[in-house]
Design brief:
Blueprint: E1 11-17, H1 21-32, E2 36-43, H2 50-63, E3 71-73, H3 112-122, E4 127-131, H4 136-144, E5 152-158, H5 173-177, H6 179-186, E6 192-195, H7 197-200, H8 207-215, H9 219-239, H10 247-256, E7 261-266, E8 268-270, E9 281-283, E10 295-301, H11 303-315
Parallel strand pairs: 1-2, 1-4, 2-3, 4-5, 5-6, 6-10
Antiparallel strand pairs: 7-10, 8-9
Helix pairs in contact: 1-9, 1-10, 1-11, 3-4, 4-6, 8-9
Bound molecules: beta-D-ribofuranose and calcium ion.
Residues 18, 20, 22-23, 46-47, 132-133, 248 line the site of calcium ion.
Length: 318
């Protein structure tokens, strides 16, 4: 697409999420960056049950004064597998640790699938999907409306790992949670950016970064600092890290600042049959399968630049 001189091109987005502390950061970043335009938010069960992740998305939008963004709830369970018990480290609500407001508006009465299809049809140009939870909604969209695949510019997702997982030895949570959905997405032929643990475990928000959020002197700054302190506890206990990884923010920041992440184009397939390897993202680094590459896999990130983006983003809200 060509743009008139002086006009900043903005990338239209649908953010599919399961907030979640790092999803909340991803949401703030997506709303704040001038390169990005959030057309809709859809929610999925993941870090907590669907009711909670939907409420959390609405609470974050209320905090940020962006209740104009339409929100619709999607899948409350994986396509094939049994639902899982919510992970503990996001707390009872899925977004514990901060004084977030109650939602000022409800979610729409349409489903995530309906909101996504309407949004894709109405958009003047192909829309990027950012997926920061299990890929159930995205896969259902691809299956229910295959004719709309051409309306999706790319899918930037947080998920997977080329090495150790975080939910099992093999798999990262978002892919493990709904491996059949992830397989549909990785097989779709739509360009994929994969922000997996290889890169998101470098994206730590350290105590001086959290102090910068506090130092903003705003309600948003305080809330995000408190969220990060809560999220830090689990990561300190489990990994001995000084701060939590803001996994989901990487999938957004990489779109806003394409040089932020060093990546490699690889063939990535999702394990759906294994006993010990459910949801493993198998990357074919030597091209042994002869199958075409389907993903840009993030390997390294400029952590300090990411933190600057996040602090600026939070600082743009009151
Ligand atoms: C992913 O799982 C969730 O805990 C986070 O929100 C992130 O999307 C990391 O494995
Ligand atoms: Ca998430």
């Amino acid at each position: 697409m060509r743009y008139a001189a002086g006009v900043t091109p903005t990338r239209p987005l649908i953010l599919d999420c399961d907030p979640g502390h790092d999803d909340a950061v991803a949401l703030a970043l997506a709303l704040a960056r001038p390169e990005l335009r959030v057309l809709a938010v859809t929610t999925v069960a993941g870090n907590a049950g669907l009711d909670r992740t939907t409420r959390n998305a609405l609470r974050v939008l209320t905090l940020l004064g962006r209740t104009d963004v339409p929100v619709a709830a999607g899948a409350d369970r994986p396509i094939v597998r049994e639902p899982w018990a919510p992970v503990g480290f996001h707390g009872e609500s899925g977004l514990d640790g901060a004084d977030l407001p109650e939602p000022a508006v409800p979610a729409l009465s349409v489903t995530a699938l309906e909101l996504a299809t309407t949004t894709l049809r109405a958009a003047a140009e192909p829309v990027t999907i950012v997926a920061t939870g299990p890929l159930t909604n995205v896969a259902l969209l691809l299956r229910a409306a295959p004719g709309l695949a051409g309306r999706i510019a790319e899918i930037s997702l947080m998920g997977g790992s080329l090495s150790q997982g975080n939910t099992t030895a093999s798999a990262e949570f978002n892919i493990w949670a709904d491996p059949e959905a992830a397989e549909i997405v990785f097989e779709s032929g739509i360009p994929i950016r994969m922000a997996g643990l290889d890169v998101t475990h470098q994206a730590l928000m350290l105590p001086p970064d959290i102090a910068r959020l506090d130092g903003l002197g705003t309600r948003a700054g305080r809330v995000f600092a408190d969220l990060m302190r809560f999220f830090a506890v689990h990561h300190r206990e489990r990994y001995g890290w000084d701060g939590p990884p803001i996994h989901d923010a990487v999938a957004v920041a990489w779109l806003a600042d394409p040089d932020l992440v060093r990546s490699e184009r690889l063939r990535v397939d999702v394990e759906t049959a294994g006993i010990h390897t459910r949801g493993r993202t198998v990357a074919d680094r030597e091209g042994l399968s002869g199958r075409p590459a389907n993903a840009d896999v993030g390997l390294d990130i400029d952590r300090e630049r990411l933190i600057d983006l996040v602090v600026d983003a939070v600082g743009s809200f009151r």
